[in-house]
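Thread amino acids onto this structure.
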């Protein structure tokens, strides 16, 4: 039973009765509007907020000071795609996510496609932020890419749902949570969009992002993919609000490692009117993730310095090796034919170069084949598998 709210306390929402067919009566949850001031009571929040802002600032500094940082950004996006998809049951890991489709076994190809669609959806949405603010229109575009050509292709990609959905359970009768009915969803989404762009609230950005993620997941506006789009929304907010200049902070890794607590924290808002505990959880995720992100950048800088020192051993091939190294930071698994096209060099010359980079320990061949071999920037890839 939900806790009875005190005066001025946050009230998560109300339940509304509906009929499923002629006989079964159920209750959907209609969340309260969020486009309004929020006063927290938990004394941990200002302390966590201050720490989160400081650490995100440090991470942002790394992403702006590291030379050629755009080569590294795609690995952050790819890592987010892997972790966010894994929360939903996808089993593709980073080792497979960097491989071309033809190298993925048929039984794993749907999972691999899920991850690649997430990467494309995220990159496309970030690019569109220059012309289109965060909005349902932007998210619907991301959703269309996310669910196209995979297991969700029959679940209205890019379209807001027109029927009742539910979370958990095999049917609406056994559901753990029932989001708002479609007839109530339009107003809830309109309120959320106003909230995204209401600068008069004077609310800290990270608090606003926490509330936004909770509300989006509660509305559950799509037939499928709500979790992934809701987590993608966090990264898009960080860019649009100017908190980060580059997309380097993604919370899905923290949420995936604390999956039970993540779902509980969202549920406790609805069942106990306790938004504070969700904000505490969210800020804790930001703090740990920002620390980990900064640590990864430091390790990348050290690893790159070592690689560039090793490249000097290659003499006249050092210039081409350096060019291939930079490309490998973006795509750390490749065939010689791919490297040859990128370098605009012959297969023979590229094969020799790759062999030399393998000899000094920069690259590692992972197939064991004599033909169609795949080389991996293995130590770099390992940084994103922690």
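Threaded sequence (386 positions):
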């Amino acid at each position: 039973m939900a806790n009875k709210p005190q005066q001025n306390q946050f009230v998560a929402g109300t339940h509304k009765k509906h009929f499923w067919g002629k006989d079964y009566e159920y209750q959907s949850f209609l969340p309260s509007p969020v486009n309004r001031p929020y006063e927290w009571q938990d004394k941990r929040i200002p302390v966590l907020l201050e720490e989160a802002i400081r650490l995100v600032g440090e991470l942002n500094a790394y992403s702006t000071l590291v030379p050629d940082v755009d080569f590294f950004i795609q690995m952050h996006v790819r890592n987010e795609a892997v972790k966010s998809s894994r929360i939903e049951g996808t089993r593709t890991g980073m080792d497979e996510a960097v491989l071309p489709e033809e190298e993925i076994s048929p039984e794993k190809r749907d999972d691999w496609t899920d991850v690649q669609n997430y990467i494309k959806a995220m990159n496309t949405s970030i690019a569109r932020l220059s012309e289109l603010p965060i909005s349902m229109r932007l998210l619907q575009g991301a959703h269309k890419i996310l669910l196209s050509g995979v297991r969700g292709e029959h679940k209205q990609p890019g379209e807001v749902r027109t029927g009742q959905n539910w979370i958990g359970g095999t049917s609406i009768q056994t559901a753990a949570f029932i989001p708002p009915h479609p007839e109530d969803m339009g107003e809830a989404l309109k309120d959320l969009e106003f909230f995204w762009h209401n600068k008069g609230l004077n609310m800290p950005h990270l608090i606003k992002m926490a509330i936004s993620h909770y509300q989006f997941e509660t509305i559950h506006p799509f037939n499928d993919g709500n979790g992934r789009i809701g987590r993608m929304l966090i990264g898009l907010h960080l860019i649009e609000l100017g908190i980060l200049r580059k997309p380097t902070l993604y919370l899905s890794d923290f949420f995936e490692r604390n999956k039970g607590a993540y779902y509980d924290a969202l549920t406790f808002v609805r069942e106990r009117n306790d938004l504070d505990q969700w904000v505490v959880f969210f800020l804790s995720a930001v703090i740990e993730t920002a620390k980990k992100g900064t640590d990864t950048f430091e390790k990348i800088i050290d690893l790159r310095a070592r690689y560039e020192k090793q490249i000097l051993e290659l003499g006249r091939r050092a210039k081409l090796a350096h060019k291939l190294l930079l490309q490998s930071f973006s795509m750390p698994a490749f065939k010689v034919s791919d490297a040859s096209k990128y370098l605009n060099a012959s297969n023979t010359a590229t094969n020799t170069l790759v062999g030399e980079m393998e000899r000094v320990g920069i690259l590692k061949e992972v197939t064991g084949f004599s033909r169609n071999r795949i080389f991996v920037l293995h130590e770099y890839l390992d940084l994103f598998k922690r």
